[in-house]
Amino acid sequence: MKPIIEDATSRMDKSINAFKSEISKIRTGKATTALLDAIKIDYYGTQTPLNQVANVSVLDSHTLSITPWDKNIVNEIDKAILTADLGLNPVSDGTNIKVPIPPLTEERRKELVKLVKKFGEECKIAIRNIRRDANEHLRKAEKEKELSEDLRHDAENEVQKYTDEHIKKIDEIIKHKEAEIMEV
Fold first, then answer.
1. 162 in the Ramachandran plot: left (φ > 0), alpha (ψ -120 to 50) or beta?
2. Cβ distance 18 to 123 under 8 Å?
3. With 70 as the cut, is the pLDDT of residue 184 above it?
4. Could you tell me the domains of the chain?
5. For residues 184 and 93, what is the distance between their CA atoms, to the nearest angstrom?
6. Dihedral through CA 58, CA 20, CA 103, CA 48, nearest 10?
7. Range of 78-82, 84-88, 120-124, 141-145 with top mean pLDDT
């Protein structure tokens, strides 16, 4: 009984972490290094994450600064940012790259909020699927006489409690991200 519940809560936590990671990439109009986390550079024939070939930092709330360790890849970094389709236009001086973060329009902000809610809903579905799997394992354990009906019922209630907590966490994350996006 305990391993089933622990496995379910661990998987629920992983779902929430994946959700947080996904929405951290969504632009809020403020400069954050997470915007460039998904960008990979062709570094001597190997696709390498940007943060492994350059120092990425926040200059101010609307500008990112990229200082490559190898000056020969400045053009590669420029190209990678442009082809990443993030709506960013890097400005290079030959050795450093500045990435201005354009302000978001009201319409774009609303689209981003919808996207965050969509990701949140997908995460909630994943959490509910984990609950269903855990409950099936508990019923199977009861059939195989490893659990009594009362213990199974108690365990299902505990799984439901964890499910409710995780769904509430997702709602809080969505609410926080929505406020962040809509802030002008």
1. alpha
2. yes
3. no
4. 2-25+105-182 (1.10.132.20), 33-100 (3.30.1360.40)
5. 30
6. 50
7. 120-124
Q: Is the dihedral of CA 7, 9, 13, 15 positive or negative?
A: positive
Name residue 18's amino acid: A
DSSP the chain: -HHHHHHHHHHHHHHHHHHHHHHHTS--SS--GGGGTT-EEEETTEEEEGGGTEEEEEEETTEEEEEESSGGGHHHHHHHHHHTTSS---EE-SS-EEEE-PPPPHHHHHHHHHHHHHHHHHHHHHHHHHHHHHHHHHHHHHHTTSS-HHHHHHHHHHHHHHHHHHHHHHHHHHHHHHHHHH--
What tokens were used for 59?
């200059």
Cα distance between residue 17 and residue 7, in whole Å = 15
- Read off the tokens for 180: 């962040």
Rounded distance, CA 2 to CA 35, Å? Answer: 39
